[in-house]
Write a structure and sequence with these properties.
heterodimer; A: mainly beta; B: mainly beta; 11 strands; globular
Chain lengths: 119, 114
């Protein structure tokens, strides 16, 4: 099946620093990638849709200047948490949309997630 | 506004029996539905999907049923195995709109006991 990787898998940083998280589709091309965050025992909340070659589309309530998204190629999207604060501590998960499935159907394949802890 | 709801936060089932996980949605624009399985500290794994033109889709031990009039879908796992123990999320998408983004339910934690 389709494989999506994320790097790093976990990161601890000081308040005020910026953290970059990479999301890669390893065996397929993804014109669209999605970024989610998940708090403990809660659902996955969509933060933004990352489109290759164009600006990301952010969900309501998500600060675009705080969470910078760059989709530089068909296999790579990055999320940068700028000036991170303790409330940004969360589990960040990316997904990539695989358009290869037949019949007009599609599925999103998720990365393993990145645990961010801001001290 | 929770557009996709999984009202049972947990479910416990005996090995070999059927597991039924339920999901309700409110947005009539959703026309594609997916089920994902998730272990702690890992990303969700795609299980099975169904489009709104169907009412049933089967893949091995997993079957998804869709009742559009009731805005309800369910995932049946039979027979259940201890390795099925995980959190299951249903997700919905307005397939032909908004770039195919997914809206997730809160998840149901399934525990299959030997």
């Amino acid at each position: 099946g389709a494989v999506v990787s994320q790097h790093p898998s976990w990161v601890i940083c000081k308040s005020g620093t910026s953290v970059k998280i990479e999301c890669r589709s390893l065996d397929f091309q993804a014109t669209t990638m999605f970024w989610y965050r998940q708090f403990p025992k809660q659902s996955l909340m969509l933060m933004a849709t990352s489109n290759e070659g164009s600006k990301a589309t952010y969900e309501q309530g998500v600060e675009k200047d705080k969470f910078l998204i760059n989709h530089a190629s068909l296999t790579l999207s990055t999320l940068t948490v700028t000036s991170a604060h303790p409330e940004d501590s969360s589990f960040y998960i990316c997904s990539a949309r695989d358009l290869r499935t037949s019949g007009g159907q599609f599925a999103q394949y998720f990365g393993p997630g990145t645990r961010l802890l801001v001290l | 506004d929770q557009q996709v709801k999984q009202n049972s936060p947990s479910l416990s089932v005996q090995e070999g029996r059927i597991s039924i996980l339920n999901c309700d949605y409110t947005n009539s624009m959703f026309d594609y539905f997916l089920w994902y399985k998730k272990y702690p500290a890992e990303g969700p794994t795609f299980l099975i999907s169904i489009s709104s033109i169907k009412d049933k889709n089967e893949d091995g031990r997993f079957t998804v049923f869709l009742n559009k009039s009731a805005k309800h879908l369910s995932l049946h796992i039979v027979p259940s195995q201890p390795g099925d123990s995980a959190v299951y999320f249903c997700a919905a998408s307005p397939l032909y709109n908004q770039g195919g983004k997914l809206i997730f339910g809160q998840g149901t934690e399934l525990s299959v006991k030997p």
